[in-house]
Fold:
Amino acid sequence: MELKKIQNILREMGVVGAGGAGFPSYAKLSDKAETIILNCAECEPLLKVHRQVLEEYTYEILSALSDVVKTCGAEQGIVAVKSHYTSTLNALRAEIGAFSNLSISTLEAVYPAGDEIILIREVTGKTVVPGSLPISVGVVVCNVESMLNVYNALKGNPVTHKYVTVAGEVKTPLTLCVPLGTKISQLIHAAGGATVDNAEYISGGPMMGKLINVNDVVTKTTNAIIVLPQNHGVVLNKKLNFKINLRRTASVCCQCRSCTELCSRHVIGYPVEPHAVMRLFSNGGKGDMSVVAGAMYCSGCGLCETYSCPQGLSPRQVIAEMKAVARQNGLKPPTDVPFDPNVKDAELKKVSVERLSARLGLTKYDKPAPIHEDFATKQVKIMMAQSIGAPAIPCIAEGDAVKAGDVIGKVKDGALGVNVHASIDGKVTTVNEKFIKISKI
Ligand code: SF4
Ligand code: SF4
Structure:
């Protein structure tokens, strides 16, 4: 199939990165790609979607990956998977022989191995220049569920469902396949309910996920719901007040450099120096301003705030605020900063997921969360903006009858974005520019 044709199909069928920011998949594919990496690192504690989906749909995912490699004119596809995901690896080894353009690369159990820049370095040995995209070194990275969605799209089936792991303080941790637009409270109920009073809910992993409300709904990027007590360290960290963090920085940051020495971007040679940013802010913004440009390459992995800092400070939050101001002012990270990817002792500075999990107080929640495909709901609220780019524009009216898979929101011609589809059969009860509600008749 031609590249343009497959891109059109993925745009029409609503395929985006099934996790993270949700970049539209069609826009990632390029005829400049030499290697397509399938990212099954899944490095945040408690997340269990990708390894299970890859084990369950091995042939389908490898088949789609092989097609994408051919379509882009790439040399190879590499499935990057953690070496301790034994059953996933066994399933891969049983099927991969049928695909001559694919191979497997095993990864260590370290965080954040799933960060695209770090993954590319681990798998290919290439380091992406700070501020550049993976394609600059001839690589495209796709995630596992997105590739299953590519397989389905090529068969004419749009994205209507999402796999979500429900873990933490619930009776029965599990991984559900749910219609897009399902309320989070229904997922918690399916997992037997919260086992603590006044629980807090995180969408995504404990490191990079965000606190949400049980009335929020599943979107194309919802990978996990982690339920935790309201006084759990991970929750308190996410509620950290910026002004208090700054005041504490000024009084207790001892400039030990631990945050910089273990920073996941610093250890691959990027000029990210969180300790220097904290010094700048402690001095009321007076000092070496060049550290601001370097901090633009922070990935937000959170290691500095949850793992490295002995004082419980959050360089990540300070840098995130700084980056937000830079974005508002139209500033982009420069691509011409000097950097040396050969960092001394980089191997010794890798952070084991097991140790990270223990440090976060999450080890007791690391339980199996098997896939359940039989979830059903009577009502969905489907968001028009579920990925990076322009939101879809509703193309149906209140009172219309729809079937699962019908287009209900269309992306504007020429805009970065994808179509949105009904996830259940039913009647449209609400339409506005933000969401569409559908109820079973
Ligand atoms: S969040 Fe902290 S550790 Fe992670 S990249 Fe940014 S500065 Fe480095
Ligand atoms: S680890 Fe904490 S105390 Fe040490 S320099 Fe970084 S922010 Fe300051």
The radius of gyration is 22 Å. The chain has four domains: 3-154, 160-232+361-376, 242-351, 378-441.
